[in-house]
Amino acid sequence: MIRSAGLAVSPGLLWPLLGAILSLMPAPATADDAPSPATLLAAPVAPVPPLLDRQQVDAAIGRLDDVVESAMAKTGMPGVAVAVVYRDEILYAKGFGLREVGRPELVDTDTVFLLASVSKPITATILARLVGDRLFEWDDPVRGYDPAFALSDPYVTENATFADLLSHRSGLNTGAGDLLEDLGFDRETILSRLDQQPLDPFRSTYHYSNYGYTAGAVAAAKAAGEPFEDLAERLLFAPLGMGRSSFRHADYLGHANRARIHVRIGDPADRRWEARHDRMPDAQAPAGGASGSVLDLARFLRLQLGDGTFEGEPLVDAGALATTHLPHIANRLPDDATERAGFYGLGWNVGYDDLGRVTLGHSGAFALGTSTAILLLPGEELGIAAITNGEPIGVPEAIGATFMDIAQHGEQTVDWLSFIGGFFAHAMAAEQGGPDYAEPPADAAPPRAAGIYAGTYDNSYYGPLMVEADNGMLSMKLGPADAPKRFSLTPYDGDVFTFEPIGENAAPLSAARFQASGDGGVTGVTLEFYDRTGLGTFTRN
Fold first, then answer.
1. Which residues contact 489 (CB under 8 A, 6 or more apart)?
2. I need a labelling partner for 259 at 20 to 30 A (CA). Which of 169, 330, 359, 463 fits?
3. Is the pTM for the entire model greater than 0.85?
């Protein structure tokens, strides 16, 4: 039984990366590592006692301006805000750069950013408060609180617990439900269709799932009898004084002092950025829809490092909160048996550094233009938050890792920006992989008459697909009935057409492959981009 760990001592993607960063830091070299026989201890020291002092932390803080400004200069990142908490004090909080490229307004410590998946530890803390209030236990099946919850395996449906969903071990594949969100479907619709997603083995596979996570939060909110967004305000944001934080995108848009999100344009070496998009994450709000300022995040870090206590008052049950900080599943298994594994708790990446100290952290990222990271050494009562208004290229993670590196060693020992940036570049390139449809083959066959393809094609997961012909040109509509998205279809080779995917998870050109019938008609179409888990075939009505 997991329970709240009160009496018993018991990231998609890229986000497990942050849990690995501190574990890769070398230990400080000392001349006194081995005690003499006269000073042998009766037993190993556990947990590891604090190894840093205020002087070391202050020295690292004294370098932070240079660290941030160097990262911004190398990448062109438009805006950054950073805060450091140590022994329940906010020792540093500062904004850098612009809220929006091309405008004069500067980032400050009250500027509101989209936090993306840094929402997950915030949500886990809200649920920990409910566990402490005995509304449910971490190992209670969520279906007992949300009868609408269902996955494709009846056993998993009946037995998946809050801990299972918040540790990404339900068996749902990475990104399950995300493509429905990109098409504009709402939260209720997306959650109601998760039972069509295939599952990997329950509790033995880790897959980063925004909508599995969201399902856990929705069940908790139903147990509490109020919408999750209201619950967050009442149980966490208001008591902590996180007055600029919200899980509603409308609240983010309502702040005059907010950071627009940016993507890189042209050659990355040119360091040019543009505020092209908005990212409306309300459907997955518990997993990725929070917004807030760096000062709000600093208050949140104080609560984490204070074991659920804030300003001397207990806010979250210490045992329930501690359970979120414990490993629940391995999320990074190394190829080399001499290297450490990484773990995921409940909304946290959990790791261990060379000195045996626990590290906690989480990254957040929207490819459409935001990247964030928080990093904690709980045994040192030390934490840092770094948030940016640019697409994920490793900047906030590098700022956090460099700060911790300097605090531990007195100087930077690794080029963290290049190291972490390389991970991001590799992962992003892998996500963009697949067939290249930029140019049709030299011997491409012509398509048939446009009208042959026109019609309605059914799919229980994505909903109906309408293919329309207009003056010999084809397009298709897909998405909610009241606001479907339209895609142009460009001839590629015979019955294969190309289209351009949209949204947060968009990739380069993908293919629509129509299936011919024996009588010269068309029986269906498979959209490759939407077929990642075998759900992308539409049958002609």
1. 453, 467, 473, 474, 475, 476, 497, 498, 499, 512
2. 359
3. yes
